[in-house]
Amino acid sequence: MNEISFERLVFGVDDEARAAPHLVQAMVELTYGCNLRCVHCYNPTHDAQDELRTEAVLRILDELAHEGCLRVGFTGGELFVRRDTFDILRHAKRLGMILTILTNATMITSKIADRLAALDPHQVDVSVYGASAETYETVTRVPGSFLRFLSGLDRLVERHVRVLLKLVLLTVNVHERRQMQELAMSRNLRYQMATDVHPRVDGSIEPLAYRLSPAQAFEVWRESAEPIPSASLTARGESLAAFDGRCIPAGGVAPPSNTPGILGRRALPAGRLARLGATPDVHHGLLTSGGSQMRGASRAKAEEPSCGFDGRVFHCRCGKSNVAVTPHGRLNLCLSVYHPRYDLTRGSLKDGWKQLVDLVASARPGPAYECNRCSLTEHCSRGVGDSWLATGQFDNPCMPHYRELAERKASFLRER
């Protein structure tokens, strides 16, 4: 049987979808309820009101699977505030979907950790807001949450659940980023540094007060882009390969870090697999990923081109391979772009998906749009979601924060 790395599988299928849209991945927000009150959160409410009942969520998952969705991410709010979370997760697993779970880990009890280990999701993404109680709880605004986070994280680690740490860097915690990295490395966990902060979906710009300046964000980017001095790793008793196996580029895919594993229990169409250089196991109908390829994170991988690159409003996966579903059953382009809010409680996912595909295909930049004639697009991290949350438009003019950051990246790369 030919083997294919998880990175190659995901990016290969996504790349195909850019030319011929087909549903690959869904992000499903199970609830807006959350036990934390993070200062930067784009969620306008932390209450779970009039959200989909279990049966409705399961029906949407059935429709996603029927449309060929390969991978589903579950998030919130904090999804473990729902009592039926594992009923939903198990149903997605039975459908053969590759599961990613996003959590703050503060509600991970021993029982929940046992159930997650038994479920064996592809990955559990855990947000990290600081390396000390004072800093962490400055972000979460909930006393005692730091110790609950550490306890929940360690319960997952003890059970060998595949974890990726998302180091969320803000003005109030960036001074602890080294310690946050140490927190990950001391547990032999992969991590990803994130500097994106957006306005809330209700239009409030309050979270932007906690966004790093372009200069600060550039320093974080530069540190992840530059080679790590081998002497500093030797002093730690580490190899460069081992370190690279834990540091995931922002926007990159983090495959499992331990052993080759099953990627899914639904074989992709044979033609699609052949184009990706893989074949299904004819006995089990499984896909596997090559262990040697999985262990190295592509530290030097090029940045994903931003929307506006090559003149298109949507260069991203919205309406080509990805969708998002809200706790109220609205189908949107992504978690950041709450549009077009197609109502899945009244219509089918098939019809909603077609509406998204048509919307993206027909989008044309207006006269004020500058990304399609800007020399910095290949260095710019601004996307449609950033534009939408800031102005409610896909194609608003240049955004100074992202331009300055792109200028700093371009200058740095010219001088290397």
Descriptive account of the structure:
The strands form 2 sheets. The chain has a 9-stranded mixed β-sheet with strand order 6-5-4-3-2-1-9-10-11, with helices on one face. Strands 7-8 form a two-stranded antiparallel sheet. The chain starts with 5 loop residues before the first helix and ends with a helix. Helix 2 runs parallel beside helix 3 and helix 8 packs parallel to helix 15. The chain has about 425 residues and is of the alpha/beta class. The protein has a domain at about 5-295: Alpha-Beta Barrel (TIM Barrel). The protein has 15 helices and 11 strands. Helix 2 (about 55-65) links the parallel strand 1 and strand 2.
* Largest sheet, strands/sense/barrel: 9 strands, mixed
* N-to-C series of helices and strands: HEHEHEHEHHEHEHHHEHEHEEEHHH
Count of helical regions = 15
Estimate the global geometry from the Cα principal axes: globular
Short description:
The chain is an alpha/beta fold and 416 residues long. It has 15 helices and 11 strands.
List the helices and strands and how they pair.
Blueprint: H1 6-19, E1 25-29, H2 54-66, E2 71-75, H3 85-94, E3 98-103, H4 110-119, E4 123-128, H5 133-140, H6 145-158, E5 163-168, H7 177-185, E6 190-194, H8 214-225, H9 230-236, H10 240-244, E7 262-264, H11 270-276, E8 287-288, H12 291-295, E9 322-325, E10 330-332, E11 342-343, H13 349-362, H14 384-391, H15 400-415
Parallel strand pairs: 1-2, 1-9, 2-3, 3-4, 4-5, 5-6
Antiparallel strand pairs: 7-8, 9-10, 10-11
Helix pairs in contact: 2-3, 8-15
